[in-house]
């Protein structure tokens, strides 16, 4: 896990005379935000600090992200994208197991902890709930649907199975243990999620 | 679904000269609290109101329940106990389906909404998180473990399956859709949870 650069040693990009393309500026901002959120959580994430580190104006940041929460979620989504990417080794069970272990690792970082707090706050904050779904959870669900649908097309999952339900029985089950920690998230738990679902728990 | 009695028409128990047994008083209090929480949520649940309706002193309430949250959780647990009780028709799949439908019904009440808000707040409030686990979630898990273990002993679930994981893949999956509502909780979803888990999703 990489840690956030110390702000004092981080060099903001020099602002040249020419305008940098918006896409590039946006990617820089998301990289800065992602590093901070993963390493520290969101308590000390401010528009001012991000503006300084990414070498962009606060006006630009506010134009693209209406709130600190939106900025944090967008940065987090991009920061975990590679870690949470699905392998495709033609063995969906192995790929899911591998991804679930990575996911549990990410959730154990300050960034993962911050995500649980955002889910928590969103129970009483409809704007944050909408931002969370738009900027994080719906995108993550889509990526899982794609991988599971590919497995179904290849015959690794039965045709009559609704892959949307599997998302709740895999990652949703992990979120449940994280949000209500009566039982721990262990490697054996993660493997059992996949085995139970693919093999079924009834006698064969 | 019964609604809370209107406070103005609710008659507090007359306080006789003799002392009522503590168990009886406790049961009365929990009944009053449960009715309020299910019908309204917890926003207007106060020690004063409960003391008045149950005919007990606030001192007694404070002695038994250290906080409003603890009182609400204890009352809620008892209020839903019958609705969420597991049938035992010797067909665990049918019994689970039936219970999951009841559970989704309870979660759609103001009391269920309040429960989600407690889970939300408990992400940043360690005392509330501990109270939630002690007074609600660990007890509900135990009841599910009992029912699932009985099914395993009867051969409806394989011996090598850890029934604790099934709780997260059934009720945990429902909580996930409630806490992060990207997808709705429908009857088809509830049935699919049981079918996926018992039959497995791999081709047979």
TrEMBL record, chains A, B:
Q: Which organism is it from?
A: Cellulosimicrobium composti
Name of the protein described by the UniProt record: TetR family transcriptional regulator
**Region described as Disordered: spans on this chain:** 1-22
Q: Which part of the chain engages DNA, per the record?
A: 46-65
A Pfam family of the record is TetR_C_11
Please list the residue ranges that the record marks as compositionally biased, kind Basic and acidic residues.
1-10
Q: What InterPro entries does the record point to?
A: Homeodomain-like_sf, HTH-type_TetR-like_transc_reg, HTH_TetR, Tet_transcr_reg_TetR-rel_C_sf, TetR_C
Ranges where the HTH tetR-type domain occurs: 23-83
> Which keywords annotate this record?
DNA-binding, Transcription, Transcription regulation
């Amino acid at each position: 896990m990489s840690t956030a650069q110390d702000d004092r040693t981080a060099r903001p990009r020099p602002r040249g005379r020419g305008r940098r393309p918006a896409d590039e500026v946006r990617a820089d901002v998301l990289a800065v935000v992602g590093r901070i959120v993963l390493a520290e959580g969101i308590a000390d994430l401010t528009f001012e600090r991000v503006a300084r580190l990414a070498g962009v104006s606060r006006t630009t940041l506010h134009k693209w992200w209406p709130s600190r929460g939106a900025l944090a979620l967008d940065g987090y989504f991009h920061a975990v994208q590679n870690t949470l990417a699905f392998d495709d080794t033609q063995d969906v069970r192995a790929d899911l197991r591998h991804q679930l272990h990575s996911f549990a690792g990410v959730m154990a970082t300050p960034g993962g902890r911050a995500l649980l707090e955002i889910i928590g706050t969103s129970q009483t904050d409809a704007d944050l709930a909408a931002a969370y779904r738009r900027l994080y959870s719906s995108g993550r669900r889509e990526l899982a649907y794609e991988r599971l649908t590919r497995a179904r097309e290849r015959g690794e999952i039965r045709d009559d199975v609704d892959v949307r339900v599997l998302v709740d029985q895999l990652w949703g089950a992990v979120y449940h243990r994280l949000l209500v920690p009566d039982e721990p998230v262990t490697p054996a738990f993660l493997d059992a999620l996949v085995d139970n679902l693919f093999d079924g728990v009834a006698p064969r």
